[in-house]
Amino acid sequence: MNDYRILVVDDEEDLCEILKFNLENEGYEVDTANSAEEALKMDICNYNLLLLDVMMGEISGFKMASMLKKDKKTARIPIIFITAKDTENDTVTGFNLGADDYISKPFSLREVAARVKAVLRRTWQEETERVPEQVAYQTLVLDIIKKKVCIDGEETPLTKKEFEILLLLLQNKGRVFSREDILNHIWSDEVYVLDRTIDVNITRLRKKIGVYGKCIVTRLGYGYCFETE
């Protein structure tokens, strides 16, 4: 846990110091701010978790969280609200803003430490399991979100099936896929597809990706793979 940085934002200075002391004893690196205005002047992108009080000055914890969630650079940082307000509406508001947990005052320090640990573990797992937005080999880049392929920064138009074949091979460099494997991955919903269809798509794909075409290697009797140098 030693690599995690936490920012505690609360207008009660004593509470900030208590949380800082105890979370540092748990192995975290902790900074504090006594208002949302102060916190927003800090480099929030560098924190792995925010402990955020709801009832503060002109900018409430809810308002600050809303601002952070609208910014792509801070949208994924987990937030735990800490507040004396514990009504159902307040809790729902917090979760609707993207809060990861909600702790009502008074609370035990052991409870805070346990919830911090749980949120960090969950978000860390989500990040490691997150599907990458791009897959690349040298200057060949597949944008999985936009469904496009670029070589040396120039887009190379591919059909849907060609894109999916290239993505399958590039995500599994060195692994040989039989025609049956490719059929199951790419044409899983098709009733009847000839093996020849795969060969034709591979041939077209090799031509379209230019110098990288040679990376799509045929293993006679086995299938195809993307082989790097």
TrEMBL record:
Annotated GO CC locations: cytosol; protein-DNA complex
Modified residues (4-aspartylphosphate): D53
Gene3D superfamilies membership: 3.40.50.2300, 6.10.250.690, Winged helix-like DNA-binding domain superfamily/Winged helix DNA-binding domain (1.10.10.10)
Domain Response regulatory: 5-120
GO biological process, one term: regulation of DNA-templated transcription
GO molecular function, one term: phosphorelay response regulator activity
Family matches, as InterPro entries: CheY-like_superfamily (IPR011006), OmpR/PhoB-type_DNA-bd (IPR001867), Sig_transdc_resp-reg_C-effctor (IPR016032), Sig_transdc_resp-reg_receiver (IPR001789), WalR-like (IPR039420), WH-like_DNA-bd_sf (IPR036388)
Leader sequence segment: none
Entry keyword Kinase: no
Pfam families per record: Response_reg, Trans_reg_C
Keywords: DNA-binding, Phosphoprotein, Two-component regulatory system
CDD domains tied to this protein: trans_reg_C
DNA-binding region in chain numbering: 132-228
Limits of the OmpR/PhoB-type domain: 132-228
The protein's name in its UniProt record: Response regulator transcription factor
Protein's organism: Bacteroides muris (ex Fokt et al. 2023)
